[in-house]
Amino acid sequence: MDQVGRARILVVDDDVALAEMLTLVLHTEGFDSRIVGRGDEAHAAFRDYKPDLVLLDLMLPGIDGIEVCRQIRSDSGVPIVMLTAKSDTVDVVLGLESGADDYIAKPFKPKELIARVRARLRHFSEPAPEALEIGDLRIDVAGHSVVREHGVGAGAIALTPLEFDLLVCLARRPWQVFTREMLLEQVWGYRHAADTRLVNVHVQRLRAKVEHDPENPAIVVTVRGVGYKAGTSASGGEQHTD
Fold first, then answer.
1. Are 205 and 80 in contact (CB under 8 A)?
2. Distance CA 132, CA 112 (A)
3. Per-residue pLDDT at 239 exceeds 50
4. Is the pTM of the predicted complex or chain greater than 0.85?
């Protein structure tokens, strides 16, 4: 955020009318913003502007939004929300797998977009001191850090803010099985039916970082036919299919 606490939003979209509308809506809601109209200019703009969140169109001149997302993720875990007209295609999943946190399908209502932006920015609020454990991981919630305390891969684990929120949600209630719909509400902020592919893809991304064997997870465990829960040990686990 800037010196007066206004979150900065980078809008990457070649639709001039839409980008200008987004700028107006964001300004009205108290955000600063900058517009980039080409994919091949987005990464440089990101590094220069240092935004708190990126609104990223999938279809862009120069390079596409999926490649832009990969470039940004190579530098930062800043929240990325895709803007897409292709909500029913594999492009959404490809975008999520490349590092996006969420997506919103065009056309969308401004209030819906702002709600999505605020949900992704909420990690800026100061959390109370809290230490959690899940498997062989220790989580410092206020410090936004995850450390594997011993064994292979011991040390700090870098997670995006959304991956961190997902892990914390599971770790806070190790006895609870979370349906995908519950995770959508608690981690993404949805309060209505939404695409559960968001959960599946981000669980896979999280497992790739925290599990000793992502194909045999022991930290983020699948409960067949229901959803996910925190594992109780750092070895073993159960087979899963997503």
1. no
2. 32
3. no
4. no
Distances (CA, A) of 165 to 4, 61, 235: 26, 33, 23
Rg (CA), the chain: 18
Angstrom distances, CA of residue 46 to CA of 27, 39, 86, 107, 130: 19, 11, 24, 25, 32
Q: How far apart are CA 38 and CA 29, in angstroms?
A: 25
Instruction: Count Cα neighbours of 180 within 13 Å in the Cβ-side half-sphere.
Output: 16
- The residue behind tokens 């930062």 is 76
Q: pLDDT, tens digit, for every residue of 91-100?
A: 888 889 999 9
What is the three-state SS of the chain? CCCCCCCEEEEECCCHHHHHHHHHHHHHCCCEEEEECCHHHHHHHHHHHCCCEEEEECCCCCCCHHHHHHHHHHHCCCCEEEEECCCCCHHHHHHHHCCCCEEEECCCCHHHHHHHHHHHHHHHCCCCCCEEEECCEEEECCCCEEEECCCCCCEEECCCHHHHHHHHHHHHCCCCCEEHHHHHHHHHCCCCCCCCHHHHHHHHHHHHHHCCCCCCCCCEEEECCCEEEECCCCCCCCCCCC
SS (H, E, C) 213-232: CCCCCCCEEEECCCEEEECC
